[in-house]
Amino acid sequence: MKDLISSVFTILKYGGKAVTIFRNIIFNIIFLFIIVVVGLAFFSKEDTSIGSNNALLLTISGNIVDEKQIIDPLSELFNDLLGFSQLPEETLLQDILDAIHAAEEDERINSIVLDLSDMGVSSISQIRDVGKALINFKTSGKPVIAAEDFYTQDKYLLASYADRVFLNPIGLVDLHGLGAYQLYFKDALQKLKINYHVFRVGTYKSAVEPITRNSMSDEAKRQNSVWLNNLWQEFRKDITSRRDISYDTIELYTNQVSSLLKQSDGDTARLAFQANLVDELMTRQELRSYLADITGPSAEKGFRHVAFKEYLKKIPRSYGNDGSTIDSVGIIVAQGNILTGEQPPGTIGSESLVNLLYNARNDDSIKAIVLRINSGGGSVIASEIIRHELLELKKSGKPYVVSMGGMAASGGYWIAADADEIWAYPTTLTGSIGIFGAIPTFEDSLAGLGIYSDGIGTSKLSSGLNLTQPLSQELQDAVQLTIEHGYRRFLEIVSSGRNIERDKLDLIAQGRVFDGATAKKLGLVDKLGSLDEAIRSAASLANLEKYSTRYIKGRPSISEILLQQLHVKILAFFSNGKTSARIFEKLQLYSKASRDLLLFNDPKGIYAHCMINYY
After folding, report:
1. Angle at the Cα of 31 (from 26 to 34), degrees rounded to 5?
2. What average pLDDT does range 554-562 have in this prediction?
């Protein structure tokens, strides 16, 4: 037996060495391959010619954002060199605008073809920015063409800005109105015996309802109904004005689609054509022929074109640091949940954003700051840390202007309130002035498994926030008092920053959410307009006649790049087919509330956050 065991260990020992040698050989081959590929990338010459009579194939992939999450540069390099097409999960709004503006004056570009097949979620505000650029492009006499097999609501809103909108004869235009829906977990938490202790201030602060209810409260339904209808009014206004159709047509299409389909024998494409939502039904083969008549034929895709990603490499970019010595307006993007500490792009970290603001304040060439906010908020402590740094910016004499994107609510409004000016779109979601706390304990869940936590301490609070112990009444009372103090603090900040009387402000606070147009009437927003208009206003406040504009960004760490690579691979797994991608997109929307609660890291467990999603 001893000899047998010895033999087994000998086999394992040398087997392990063989595996190690094999692994090292593989890693060395991969490393050598990387060196060769990178070397080829540096020493190969790229053909930068475009030629004449090209369509700009404007491919919008994934969500439209103001700031991308970290891109894995190595994967992107391999895909470019090896000819693989990996569509990013996000498209930068400024990249789209830059490409359209450049194409307007580019004699080599004779049209724009919108490729929206992989477009994800976008706010009405972002789509309007792109639409405005397309309208300017059309003044050059060049056409804009949209052609898809299937139009989601966001895709169709953007396509409505085109001169010609085509649909596959087997396709569909999915207009269904706007809705705000989410999952509710009260019964599930009870079945799992998780005790969620919820603290809040504000009648309309519905962020914690998924934990405390199985359905949306009447108060939340009332407030959501107001801003949803206002946004839907703006949505319909864009489509009816561009397509020369009536409001009644849209209402019939979204409310009585089954009766309309009876008239078209169930043919969804013909229904869209009869409603004048599209100009013509075209197969892909007919579309290629149509586009070839405009640009001339080509072996690739059947018509002459330049891809959006390639075109970006050949044009000047907006808001870049061009080394200019003239005075600048700096743009800082604050996008995503507000968390404490250092956070990667796509999330607002208190330390990350404070560092950018500190550097901008101490940069003599930067005379004004525009903070572009796309956030539903998050940690109260992080929001207050950021706000104090913004106050230091104001003390320095540099104007501070906020440009709100699709959403700047709760903590997003907390950091905006002290701005010299707040700009928003009519369709921005803002306000949500209220805070909450949510602390789970698992003593009953563990007891169901036969696991118990016990001990002794020197005071009623000695167990602290031990999630295996019940939350003492003393601690519950303390947290609620802290929440109430935080709410009063929020009101003080907004009252002082916006010059609104406290009693009047309390009537429009309580966690209510407003669209941008309503927020302007209430004094929560100063002006309605785009990022460009906010930049011009900031320059004016700084008395700048001649100035440059540039983004102020941090540098991603190696760990952030590795995390992004993992995220990209997971998304790619779910995006192998159009159907699975759409399912994954819906799961992202539905699970946002629970995911955000898991990611929050406020040390006091107190949040100013608006978890509303609409689609």
Report:
1. 130
2. 58
What 3 state SS string does 184-253 have? Answer: CCHHHHHHCCCEEEEEEECCCCCCCHHHHCCCCCHHHHHHHHHHHHHHHHHHHHHHHHHHCCCHHHHHHH
- Is the Cβ–Cβ distance between 50 and 295 less than 8 Å? no
Contacts of residue 155, Cβ cutoff 8 Å, sequence gap at least 6: 116, 119, 148
Pick from 400, 394, 275: nearest CA to 334: 400
Spatial CA neighbour of 608 closest among 475, 435, 392: 435
DSSP, res 101? H
524 C-beta neighbours (distance < 10 Å), count: 26
Tokens 């539903």: give the residue.
376
Please report which confidence band the pLDDT of residue 601 belongs to, taking 50, 70 and 90 as the band edges.
Answer: low
Q: pLDDT tens digit string along 102-135?
A: 999 999 999 999 999 999 989 999 999 999 999 9
What does pLDDT average to over the chain? Answer: 84
Query: In whole angstroms, what is the distance from residue 248 CA to residue 240 CA?
Result: 10
Instruction: Tell me the C-alpha distance between 124 and 152, whole Å.
Output: 13
In this prediction, residue 196 has a pLDDT band, given cuts at 50, 70 and 90, of confident
**Between 578-590 and 592-599, two packed helices, what is the crossing angle to 10 degrees?**
60
Cα angle 294, 172, 94 (rounded to 5 degrees) comes to: 60
Residue 269 near residue 149 (C-beta atoms within 8 A):
no
- Range of weakest confidence among 35-39, 142-146, 463-467, 604-608: 35-39
Residue 90 C-beta-side C-alpha neighbours within 13 Å: 16
The number of CA neighbours under 13 Å toward the Cβ of 109 is 26
42 Cβ neighbours under 8 A, 6+ residues apart: none
Model pTM score:
0.82
345, two tokens: 């792009």
**Bigger pLDDT: 49 vs 278:** 278
Annotated catalytic residues are: 205, 410
* Residue (of 587, 600, 604) closest to 207 by Cα position: 600
Q: How far apart are CA 220 and CA 204, in angstroms?
A: 6
Q: What is the pLDDT of residues 253-264, one digit of tens each?
A: 999 989 999 999
pLDDT for 12 equals 41
- When computed from its CA atoms, the radius of gyration of the chain, rounded to whole angstroms, is 27
